Amino acid sequence: MNDNDDLPPADAAAALRLIEDQRAATVRRIAPDPRLAYWPWGVAWLVGFGLIFLRYSPDGRVLVRLPDWLPLTVLLVLLGAAAAVEVVAGARAHGRVTGDSARRGAWYGWSWFLGFLTLFVALARVSGHLPHDQAQLLWSASAVGLTGVLYMAGGAVWLDRDLFLLGAWITLTSLASTLAGPGWHALLVAVAGGGGMLVAGLLAHLRWRRRR
After folding, report:
1. Whole-angstrom distance, CA of residue 80 vs CA of residue 44
2. Residue 103, pLDDT score
3. Residues 6+ apart with CB under 8 A from 174
4. What is the pTM of this model?
5. Residue in 86, 136, 92, 88 with CA at minimum distance from that of residue 112
6. What integer pLDDT is reported at residue 6 of this predicted model?
7. For the segment 52-109, what is each residue's pLDDT rounded down to a tens digit?
8. In the chain, where does DSSP find H-type helix?
C-alpha cells in the first residue's frame, strides 16, 4: 500500500476535483432507477385511459362492453399503485438526505397533494351540473393538465430538462385532447401521455446506467 494515497491533495484545484468526484459518486449511489418514477404512471395512464376509451368512445359509441365502473376503478387502482411505488423508491433513495434538497422535495410533494386536493374539491362542486361525457372530460383534462404543469415546475426547481420537457409534452397533450373532445381525450392521453412517460422513463434509465 502506498502511503501517498492517504495524503491530502497537493493544491486547491485537486481538492475541488476530489470533492466533486465524491459528490457525483454519492448522487449516483442514492439516485433511484428513473423507471420507478415514470413507468408505473405510464402503465396506469396507458391501461386506465385506454379502458375508458374502449368503454366511452367518441359520439357515444362503445367499442368494448365493459361494466360502467370498471375503467375508472382500474385507473384509480393503478394510479394508487404508481404513487406507492414512487413513494417507497424515493424514501429508500433519499431517506438520509437532509438540508435544502430534502426541504425542496418535501415542499414539492405538498404542492402535488394540495394542488390536486383543491382541484378535486372544486370539480366536485360543478361537475354534477354537466352531462356525463362533459363532466368526465373536465375531470380528466384538469388532472392531466395539472400533472403536466407540476412536472414543468419540478423541472424548473431541479433544472431537470427532461422532466420539464415531459411536463410540456403532457400539458400539450392535455390541451390537444381537450380540444378533440370526449372519447378522443382518453385515447390521446393513453397513447401520447402514457406512452410518453414510458419513453421518458426508458431514456432516463439509459442515461442513469451510463452515469453509473
Report:
1. 9
2. 81
3. 141, 144, 145, 148, 189, 193
4. 0.82
5. 86
6. 54
7. 999 999 988 999 999 999 999 999 999 999 999 988 877 766 555 566 777 887 888 8
8. 12-30, 35-55, 70-94, 100-126, 132-158, 161-180, 184-188, 195-211
Chain position carrying cell 390536486: 116
Considering only CA atoms, which of 86, 84, 139 is closest in space to residue 116? 139
Q: How would residue 158 be classed by pLDDT, with cut points 50, 70 and 90? A: confident
- Cα(119)–Cα(133) distance, integer angstroms: 19
Domain assignments of the chain as residue spans, ordered by start: 32-211
Neighbours of 197 (CB within 10 A): 26
CA distance 35 to 71: 25
Q: 392521453: which residue's cell?
A: 189
Q: For residues 37 and 20, what is the distance between their CA atoms, to the nearest angstrom?
A: 26
Percent of the chain with pLDDT over 90: 62
Q: Phi, psi at residue 61, to the nearest 5°?
A: -75, 155
User: Closest by alpha carbon to 48, among 69, 6, 76?
Assistant: 76
C-alpha cell at 142: 384538469
Q: Which grid cell is 112?
A: 402535488
Q: Phi and psi at residue 69, in whole multiples of 5°?
A: -80, -20
Q: How many angstroms separate the CA atoms of 207 and 142, rounded? A: 32
CB count in 10 Å sphere of residue 166: 26
